[in-house]
């Protein structure tokens, strides 16, 4: 599975209201990220249409952990600026309550999307223009990924040993975060 992640800081418009409602942009069109990727307007349209037709929804996760859903995205849509999300943290889930407290305190300031690239082109500068993405989830995150964890260039498949090493590093980081 070639799941990728993109990160957008909350200061791009994410807000917390009524204790558990969050809203903001999970992705911005036309902005080059640190990996040299630019998401094109309309890149999520087919994926969002497919999800709706199948009666499924984009998942809200804690730190990209599929075992830790923390709420629901009530609305996920593209507008002129990017991928706008509106949702609710579940106060009946311990991590949902923790996430709301951390956002309110300013300790968590990021959104990150989990997706698979379906169509992309490269320009002469090495940038990748992402034109069709399969959106899986939008996570609340502290960091988009460990800054020192480098396995392969974006868009290439890392070797198995590097993947194992990265998985172990991420698992240690997840355990450290869980311990507080």
From TrEMBL:
SUPFAM superfamilies: Herpes virus serine proteinase, assemblin. Keywords: Hydrolase, Protease, Viral release from host cell. GO terms for biological process: proteolysis. GO terms for molecular function: peptidase activity. Residues 18-157 form the Prohead serine protease domain. InterPro entries: Peptidase_S78_dom, Prohead_protease. NCBIfam families: proheadase_HK97. This is Phage prohead protease, HK97 family protein.
